[in-house]
Amino acid sequence: MQRLEHYQSEVGDVLAAICDASGLSLAWHSWSQALHLDGRCVLGAGSVLHLSAFCRRVKRHPAANAACRRCDLVAAREQCAQDPSVCVRRCHAGAHEVLVPVHDHAGLVGIAYLGQFRCERDQPAALPLLEAAGLRRVVVQGCLLQAWLHDLCGRLERERNAASGDRLAQIRHYLHREPRGSLATLAQVLGLSVTRAGHVVRELSGSSFTALREQVRLERAQQLLRDDDRPIAAVARAVGIDDPNYFTRYFRAKLGLSPRAWRAQAREA
């Protein structure tokens, strides 16, 4: 949670600075998990809506609100999926805004919308008028925002990869320590619901909890047979199997050799 709060604080500072420098509102829409950490988007929830006074007035009307959604979530998405460049566009309601696409290796992550304003005097008078120099400054701010968002995506990906490795190691450590362990108990260790814990195990290992437990059990048995001189029955108990005869059948079914034969072969290698 501290990592998430750290990123959310940084995000708040950067987005506030962009809004202050441009004098414009900033909204965004995301279509991937690239800007997520610990299951939550670091950009927060409020900025998914266009909050400029102009947009709020337009969206009071249901038909116009539906048109806004098509404009932002369909037309802009299609445009930015094809062209990653920061650009200026005129929306269906007659306002200009700067589109800031964010891509990663998998494609379009999301779009930041910086606006709304007018570039021409025939546009709605409620919008701030940007002359050529002002428009150039806003586009540059959009480019700086895009570069920061790309860097943020990369940092979050590294954080998620590190967290995934740590969590998988935690799961495997639990199974080494508790070879008879249940998914319900693992869920308590991870601080998750049983359903979510099962999903996490599959996401991180590619296997169900039961299959991963069997894999870890077999790895532990091999390690003990190779590196430890304890009897076969003691090895069986160490991996959660009380019946040494069942353990011998189980081990042979998995590896094609009895535990005793496998130990002899491993020590000769």
Account of the 3D structure:
The chain folds into 2 domains: 2-161, 2-Layer Sandwich (Beta-Lactamase), CATH 3.30.450; 178-268, Arc Repressor Mutant, subunit A, CATH 1.10.10. The model has no long low-confidence stretch (mean pLDDT 89). Strands 1-6-5-4 form a 4-stranded antiparallel beta sheet, sandwiched between helices. Strands 2-3 form a two-stranded antiparallel ribbon. It is α+β, with helices and mostly antiparallel strands. Helix 7 (209-227) packs antiparallel against helix 8. Helices cover 60% and strands 13% of the residues.
Key phrases:
alpha+beta; Beta-Lactamase; 4-stranded antiparallel beta sheet; 10 helices
Q: For the residues shown, what is the average pLDDT?
A: 89
Strand order of the largest sheet: 1-6-5-4
Using the coordinates shown, work out and report the CATH topology of the largest domain: Beta-Lactamase
- CATH architecture label name of the largest domain: 2-Layer Sandwich
Strand content: 5-15%
Which sheet architecture does the biggest sheet show? Answer: 4 strands, antiparallel
What is the total tally of β strands? 6
Number of domains: 2
Range of helix content: 55-70%
* Tertiary shape: rod-shaped
How much is the radius of gyration in Å? 28 Å
Given this structure, which CATH class of the largest domain is correct?
A: Alpha Beta
Low-confidence sequence ranges: none
- Per DSSP, the total helix count is 10
